[in-house]
Amino acid sequence: MVRLRPKFLETVFTIALLIGLTHSTSAQEKIRLSYSALSPSTAFLWIPREKAFFKKHGLDAEIILIESGTLTSQALASGEIGIADNAGAPAIISNASGSGETIIMGLVNSLEYNMVSTKQVKDLADLKGKRIGVSRIGSSSHAAAEIALDHFKLDAKRDHITFVQSGTMTTRVAGLRVGAIDATVVDPAFVPFMLKEGYKDLGYLGKFGIPYQHESLDSSKAYLAKHRDTALKAVRGIIEGIAFIAQERNSSEVKRVLGKYLKFDDPSKIDDAYKSLRGYALNIRKPYPTNEGVNSLINFLAKFNPKVAKLTAQDVVDASLVEELEKNGFIDAVYKEAQGR
Asked: For residue 209, what are the contacts with CB-CB under 8 A and spacing of at least 6?
């Protein structure tokens, strides 16, 4: 009688589990996904597309840019898209209006912004009387800036801090250049080249441990009710992408994808983007959204929207897809496969 080694049996089990959970078919199911900003973390969608992880799980995935969290929420509510990479704030505001927008994955679960400014601003305390550029009032960037100010015992009204609606991260940086604003929040990957241009980094806000649901994967209750299996396949593909990004030996391929989509031709910019992205990936092996981060945003947004005050994290978050993939062993199996490549 031939005795099989435990390690061999474990390998066979892992392969069988991955095959059994993939459900690859010749007929690809269509799904439309979107992202709301050009940033390194959006590679959580780009990598599954480039490496055919969506296709592996039976999906013909169309990925589009809708350069606004609010417009992204509207597209989800109308059914134009099924799943979106969106910021936490617009998801909560949309849910409060009755859209049914639901956070199904946590992609970036901390306050992943740096506060940058012109040379004239000495430090965070010197923001008194200054103009801070945000996407719009009530947006994720506004929430991040206000929550950070509160952490440092600053109050916009008392300290005469003005929030200027300045649009996307790129246009906010342009606002700094022309002197329309004195400071803004940007993705950490933007900081090195802004320093080269002479701007000042007032600090990385993520190091202070402030609860914040920075970026999430969203769907709607209506879509999940009709297409839960499709959404589950998409989440599988994204988790495979996260596992791929987390492996350092894949760095050259991940950098290629970042350069392609971010249109960076400067290797140092690509390196900075990769460093940020891999850091995010290493933090979300099991990508649950955080109730603490969602509740932090709810408390902030309730100041501007009475409907938001009625929400709790349980109204906005549906982590059942991630939970299912953790319980059935898919996540652990994916990482075993990624580490063995």
From this structure: 110
Three-state DSSP class for residue 218:
strand
- Reported as a single tens digit per residue, the pLDDT across 293-321 is 999 899 988 988 899 999 999 999 999 99
Strand, coil or helix: what is 26? coil
The dihedrals phi and psi of 243, each to the nearest 5 degrees, come to -65, -35
Mean pLDDT of 63-79: 89
* DSSP category for residue 128: T
- Global pTM? 0.80
Residue 200 tokens read as: 């000042």
- Based on the number of CB atoms within 10 Å of its own CB, is 299 exposed (0-12), middle (13-18) or buried (19 or more)? middle
DSSP-based three-state secondary structure for 306 = coil
Amino acid at 268: S
pLDDT in tens, 105-152: 999 888 888 999 999 999 888 999 999 999 888 777 888 898 889 888
DSSP state of 285: S
149 closest CA partner among 173, 179, 175, 183: 183
User: DSSP label at 101?
Assistant: E
Radius of gyration from C-alpha coordinates of the chain:
21
What's phi and psi for 8, nearest 5 deg? -65, -45
Mapped onto helix, strand or coil, the DSSP state of residue 203 is strand
Domains and CATH numbers, the chain: 6-111+212-340 (3.40.190.10), 114-208 (3.40.190.10)
